[in-house]
Amino acid sequence: MRKNSIKNTRINGEVQRALAEIIRGDIKDPRIHEFTSVVEVEVAPDLKTCKAWISVLGDQKACEDTLEGLKSASGYIRRELARAVNLRNTPEIHFILDQSIAYGVSMSKKIDDVMATMPDRSDEEETND
Fold first, then answer.
1. What pLDDT sits at residue 70?
2. Is residue 24 part of a domain?
3. What residue numbers bound the domain in which 60 lies?
4. What is the pLDDT of residue 121?
5. 82 in any annotated domain
6. Which of 9, 77, 98, 127 is least surrounded, with the fewest CB atoms within 10 Å of its CB?
7. 39: domain CATH number?
8. Is residue 113 one of the residues assigned to a domain?
9. Which pLDDT score is estimated for 119?
């Protein structure tokens, strides 16, 4: 199976959906933050390994605790993934912290702050007419 084939893309999407459900509903570890989302999943073509990019909306300590909680629960997650998704092999999951959502939120806040400090352009146009 090629890396970017339609079959691999479908498997990635199905594993991502199943991982999100498992993390959101099944794991009771208090270290895992409630605002944890699975951003992207990349399953290797041989179905042996899987990289899962995880985003946590919180501070740095919450991110580190969530990553540790997910790593310690990886056996349970893999077993539940095998039950949810029927694959020849259940991939070994490697969790990677992704800061893209937090980065987007902070950039949006910075843009809002800059826009709030700028003078209103409609007032300037009325005075020039």
1. 92
2. yes
3. 6-99
4. 65
5. yes
6. 127
7. 3.30.300.20
8. no
9. 81
